[in-house]
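User: Structure with aspartic acid, tokens only please.
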Amino acid sequence: MRDLKLFRRTNCFFSVVLFSAGALAAAPEQSPPAGVFSKRNPDHQQNIATEAAVRVLEDDPDFNAGKGSVFTSGGTNETDAAIMDGKTLAAGAVASLKHIKNPISLARLVMEKSGHVMMDSEGAEAFAKENGIELVNQKYFFTQKRWDALQKIKAAEKNRTSGAEKEFLITDQDRHGTVGAVALDQSGNLAAATSTGGTTNKRPGRVGDTPVIGAGTYANNATCAVSATGDGEYFIRATVGRDVSALIEYRGMSLKDAAQAALDKVAKLGGTGGLIAIDGQGNVTLPFNTAGMYRGYVDPNGKFVIEIYR
Ligand code: ASP
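Assistant:
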């Protein structure tokens, strides 16, 4: 198994973790769907690795993706995800899903089998069913923590309109969160994957930056792989993922400077968040303009680094 560098992140606080694909494959709870490590796909280890890392986080109720997704204003859960292969520039994105246990796996299926790049809601779920992807009841996504966050935001809204004085403290965690991974394999192939429940109290039908290729998710072997988190509307308007790549490609900027410039553009528009990125040389950068970002990685020597604040 070739070594892979993986990053993961969550919340507007993010996590970034570099794993080896071997370690991911070995841990039972981190097992990817049957066949993903099969010989059928020897050229797509970087996609397999990002999907596998994101699936682990989607199954963890602590993260805002899959199982732990936040609630819409209508009390439903609607998830978005995307994956991109830096070698071929193939991409798959899904949005407004209500019954898909692991949205990132459906995104990969869209990339590999649909002939499309982006699919949403019922059509995407029908495609999932046809292809044996696991569907679940909406109840699967219920977590008390996310429900309470919705109630807190609704109370704060009501309070604002009624002019009452009581304050409700809304944290970054109440408002959003996302998980993602970027990977580089030893052949120089890059990949990015991102999955989210979106933002708490979003309108049903709202889609954020995560599944927008070039905004929340982007990968290109010629430049870098990027996965972003934060106020999706701003990340879409600033075309963050593509901007990082373009600054490297056309301006010859370093990964670090390009990522910071893209994030500064978000901040200038009024948005907050962060991103994780890796280039073909294995340079990594994890900038954020929030109080913190859960992040970590395993370097090629197997050293684990996990951080939250600056
Ligand atoms: N970017 C996600 C969205 O807007 C939310 C987040 O990352 O916190 O849907």
